[in-house]
Specification:
The protein contains 15 helices and 17 strands. By secondary structure, the protein is α/β, with parallel strands linked by helices. The protein has three domains: 146 residues, Response regulator (Rossmann fold, 3-Layer(aba) Sandwich); 134 residues, Response regulator (Rossmann fold); 151 residues, 2-Layer Sandwich (Alpha-Beta Plaits). The protein has a five-stranded parallel sheet with strand order 2-1-3-4-5, with helices on both faces. A five-stranded parallel sheet has the order 7-6-8-9-10, sandwiched between helices. A five-stranded mixed sheet has the order 12-13-11-16-17, with helices on both faces. The longest helix has 32 residues.
Length: 467
């Protein structure tokens, strides 16, 4: 996995050594020798990871980290703070400033590379959701929230530890920070309970005989319900090999004992904040996509969705010889409804016709409002005679039952439809719609309240039932 990494350190020798190590692992490295230069570089470049020295003259690493995390454009870039000091207060200060990890010089290369790979994977995930966020903006939706807007209080935490004393201590610390904590003292029961409750963070102790914690982490990552739940491993110095294995399995973070209370709180807060931000991005994108591709009045798909969807099913029909039938439906004399009864009545007619259409097509057919009082139904794997029967059934259902208006009055409406089938590899979506439109024109010309079949595409004869 390659990535672009920004190294920020005022000591040229440290930069050179660290850059050489990362370059040997095929990372693309850029450098800065002080805080202001680092921030200026971030204005031009967007690296995948920042390795940031703490002790620098002028603007120290803590201030640089705070500014990175408060800037929406860079807030999701992982920051690893690196220092020669092994003071717990520095570690906590770095994490509270927004750092994603804190490493002490001299760096353990194996742990460094494991951390880098883990954080780059996380960054790539956020990059994908950032693209979705941009898509929402392009669709006209306001998306202003960023990672710094999310708090981390009131989370649901599960602690898995065979030691009741250790798990009890962690529980007390996290509950004082306002979280709801559940303790599980059996690794065997943990996976099922976690999948059922779906907490915000899982804290797993490495105290064990065997590989149960890693098996638990692997199982959580392999199951769909728990795949995105953050996992934090806690172990001793001698557990380093397995902690690294955990990072390779997809564990989000790990910490080596002795663990300061403020450090565990800060690390859990970071994981909760990330999770909530990602859930917001996912939820808002799905909502925006649904709104962008759905007609707000009728609840049917809109024309934008239909045209995109038709490209795929027309190609499939042509490549595989599967018939695709298209119904183009238009309400008769709809302008009279609006002029006589008002636009609220016209809206109710459109909603009612849409509901009746949906009741008379299959679940895998695509019904859409094409514009104004026009509707389209795309019916994959459907010959022309069956599609004609469906269109005529919809026509009959609409004509037979009056539409109840909001003011209590009832009016009768009718519709006309053109039906076309495509199974020609050379036919485009536009060609198919054009042939259905010509058939619809014929239905209107011949007196309305009727369905007309389109001629099959040139070069292919399609068997149909009698009108």
């Amino acid at each position: 996995m390659t990535a672009r990494i920004l190294i920020v350190d005022d000591l040229a020798a440290s930069v050179k050594v660290l850059a050489a190590k990362l370059t040997s692992e095929y990372y693309d490295v850029i450098t800065a020798h002080d805080g202001p230069t680092a921030l200026e570089t971030l204005g031009r470049e967007l690296p995948d990871l920042i390795l940031l020295d703490v002790m620098m003259p002028g603007m120290d690493g803590f201030e640089v980290c705070r500014r990175v995390k408060k800037t929406p454009r860079t807030a999701h870039i992982p920051v690893v703070m690196v220092t020669a000091l092994n003071d717990m207060r520095d570690r906590v200060s770095g994490l509270q400033a927004g750092a994603d990890d804190f490493l002490t010089k001299p760096l353990n290369d194996t742990m460094l590379f494991a951390r880098v790979r883990s954080l780059v994977r996380m960054k790539r995930t956020f990059d994908q959701w950032s693209l979705h966020q941009q898509t929402s903006r392009d669709l006209g939706f306001n998306v202003d929230q960023d990672l710094s807007d999310f708090n981390s209080r009131g989370a649901r935490i599960v602690v898995v530890d065979t030691s009741e004393i250790q798990s009890g201590n962690i529980k007390d610390v996290l509950e004082r920070d306002g979280h709801a904590v559940t303790v599980l003292n059996s690794y065997g029961e943990a996976a099922g309970n976690i999948a059922e409750d779906l907490p915000d963070v899982v804290v797993v102790s490495m105290d064990f005989e065997g590989d149960e914690p890693l098996r638990l982490a692997s199982r959580l990552r392999s199951q769909e319900p728990t795949r995105q739940v953050p996992i934090l491993l806690i172990g001793d110095a001698e557990d380093e090999t397995n902690l690294i294995k955990g990072l390779e399995l997809g564990v989000n973070d790990c910490v080596v004992r002795p663990v300061d209370e403020q450090e565990i709180v800060a690390r859990v807060r970071t994981q909760v904040r990330r999770k909530r931000y990602q859930e917001m991005l996912q939820s808002s994108f799905q909502q925006h996509l649904a709104l962008a591709l759905t007609d707000g009045l009728t609840g049917l798909h809109n024309r934008r969705y239909l045209e995109s969807h038709l490209d795929g099913i027309v190609k499939r029909a042509g490549d595989g010889g599967h018939g695709l039938s298209l119904l183009l439906i238009d309400l008769d004399h709809f302008k009279r409804v609006n002029d006589t009864y008002g636009h609220a009545a016209g809206d109710e007619v459109l909603r009612t016709v849409a509901r009746r259409m949906l009741r008379n097509v299959r679940g895998f057919d695509t019904a859409a409002r094409f514009g104004g009082e026009e509707f389209v139904v795309a019916m994959p794997d459907t010959p022309l005679d069956i599609a004609y029967s469906v269109a005529d059934r919809i026509r009959t259902k609409v004509a037979e039952e009056p539409v109840a208006l909001p003011d209590g009055r009832q009016i009768s409406v009718t519709l006309s439809a053109g039906v076309a089938v495509s199974s020609n590899p050379g036919e485009s979506v536009a060609d198919l719609i054009e042939r259905a439109d010509k058939a619809l024109y014929m239905a209107k010309h011949d007196g309305r309240d009727r369905v007309v079949r389109a001629d099959p595409p040139a070069g292919r004869q399609t068997e149909t039932a009698d009108d």
